[in-house]
Design a protein that fits this description.
about 20% helix; globular; about 45% strand
Length: about 180
């Protein structure tokens, strides 16, 4: 595909974490300060670690893969380092190492943010998780062959389901 001659980007409003921007007639949101996100696929003994937490923009809890911000506190932080920290903070599971699986975009028509997907390896349980003060994260360890039923039950409870869970549901949705 060829290059597109785009109008200049204009910042309409900027807060601490996000900025509303415009390029021509197109409006979208981006993160400020060069912050990115790390999303963690943590599979241990045929179980996946999921988190559930209240999300203000949705007005309800959301079932997600563990994730966190890269470079929020430390400029130039590596995604792997942030992912190890965030996994332990949110879930109580520590990874010996993280393997990058690529950068992905979840809503490219509205948000310029991408995230690095990382696979946690060498997992060990070291605590309860739950996140930092005020996050109140519930941790779920779900058998891989029960993920579809677990997601359906959570949806029936009124829980939102993050798009990144399609990674785990894909094979079932295609059959």
């Amino acid at each position: 595909m060829g290059e597109v001659n785009e109008p200049e980007e204009e910042t309409v409003w900027e807060g601490r974490f996000i900025a509303a921007k415009r390029r021509g007639r197109w409006e979208y949101v981006s993160r400020t300060r060069g912050i990115q996100a790390a999303v963690i696929l943590a599979v241990d003994e045929n179980h996946v670690i999921l988190v559930e937490q209240y999300r203000v923009p949705l007005g309800r809890s959301c079932l997600e893969l563990p994730a966190g911000l890269v470079g929020d506190d430390v400029a130039g932080e590596a995604a792997e380092v942030a992912a190890i920290r965030e996994l332990e903070e949110e879930t109580g599971w520590r990874a010996a190492r993280m393997t990058g699986l690529g950068t992905f975009y979840s809503s490219p028509g509205m948000v310029s943010e991408g995230f690095t997907l990382l696979r946690a390896e060498g997992l060990s349980r070291v605590g309860e998780g739950g996140g930092v003060e005020g996050e109140n994260i519930a941790v779920h360890r779900v058998r891989l062959d029960e993920v579809a039923d677990f997601v359906a039950a959570k949806r029936d409870e009124g829980c939102a389901i993050d798009v990144k869970l399609l990674l785990l549901l894909g094979p079932e949705l295609l059959s």
